[in-house]
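Journal club side-thread
Mid-discussion, someone asked how the predicted structure for our own chain would compare to the paper's figures. Pasting it here so we can look after the session.
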Amino acid sequence: MENKAKKSRLRGIWSGMKINKQVYFLLLPGMAWYVIFAYIPIMGLSLAFKTYKAKLGIFGSPWVGLLNYEYVFRDPAFIASLFRTLWINAGRFICEFPVPILLALAINEVRIGRSKKIIQSIFTFPHFLSWIVVSSIMINVLSHNGLVNSFIRLWGGEAVNFLGTQGYFQPLVYITSIWKTAGWTAIIYMASIAGIDQEQYEAAEIDGASRMQRILHVTLPGIRNTAIVMLILQVGFIMTTGFEQIFNLSNPATIKVAETLDMYIYRVTFQSASDFSFSASISLFKSLINFLLLLGADRLAKLMGGEGLF
């Protein structure tokens, strides 16, 4: 009986694929991309437990077990980069996470449709710029002869070394990230706001609720689950600070406060005697911690009454 049920299910799946074959053909390029560039490279993570020998290749290199991790956790630079990554990402939760929500609420309150579209386009545009372009803009604006220092000197002040001062690096990371990503992320919250039943707003308005009260008691509860999902996803990247951003904004003067885990992996792999086994072990450690934190955040969200991801 079980075999017959399985065969009937397979026939049903196969007939469904035949009927919707155009859709499956459209999916093939995307699936092929993921298999080639996302799943096949996973086999390279076996280097975390090997000593890489170029002559022998990835699969022929000898196994060494957890020896690479002994070297990793004995390196003070790794420990420093780990805590620096956690510190920067803790700041992201405080400084960056609420901004798209506030931006979506503000844009939603614009009553003229044309103005809303213009404002949304202005805030979304930076998302399509690469970090190379963004860092070039920051250099032109904040350099010694840049726009900001020109105004400071115009008013009789002394030029400030924004790009070469370690204390300014972390705020600069947050400011550029907000400028580049807040508008794009706000689209998700605006879509969630659009799905709120308009009768709730009408009922609140009839009861005499002000605009702020409608935001607090209708809009925010309506996007609560979306915000929880976005928070869970951000927790899943807590060991990743964004290599492109840090790499392009840092310089020799700020490298001490800019060497996050991603920058540390880059330095170990490409700026010193290349040790691919060492860097692979760090990458695997980082991914594993991110995965565990993602599962933990999802579980905590469900315990607190949220929907979660899984």
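Post-session note: The chain has a mean pLDDT of 86.
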